[in-house]
Amino acid sequence: MEKQFDLTNAGDTERKLFVTDGKKDVIRTVGRDDDVLKQNYEDRKESGWDITHSFRRVAHIDLGTVRLLANVRKDADAKAYLVNHDTDARDRMIRHYPDLFKACSGGV
User: What angle do CA 94, 32, 49 make, to 5 degrees?
Assistant: First the structure.
């Protein structure tokens, strides 16, 4: 019978589980977001315009990340954005967590 023990600390960006079946012990990583953070970093280097310069992209954050900010970090702006779709709260989150957003140049 397989048993799992959570090794995740508060504030971790990934979840780690110690899994054992009595014979073999393994540490599994779940929800790793290194690729997302790397892509967000690359997207922030761009001007914010598409390749044809016909439209400008806007800041975007994954709603799963907003839920984590609201539930784990107890962020009031994240809660306001989730519950009321408060655009001012979203703008404050962009300023406070720029590494989590795909944001174009020129500010919010």
Answer: 40
Find residue 29's DSSP bridge partners. Answer: 16
Task: Tell if the pTM clears 0.90, that is, is over it.
Answer: no
Each domain of the chain, given as residue ranges in start order, spans 1-32, 33-108
Backbone angles phi, psi at 26, to 5 degrees: -140, 145
SS3 67: helix
Residue 22 to residues 1, 2, 25: CA-CA distances in angstroms? 8, 8, 8
Which amino acid, one-letter code, is at 16? K
Residues in the chain: 108
Q: At what angle do helices 76-84 and 87-96 cross, to 10 degrees?
A: 150
Mean pLDDT of 38-47: 69
Tokens of 27: 């540490």
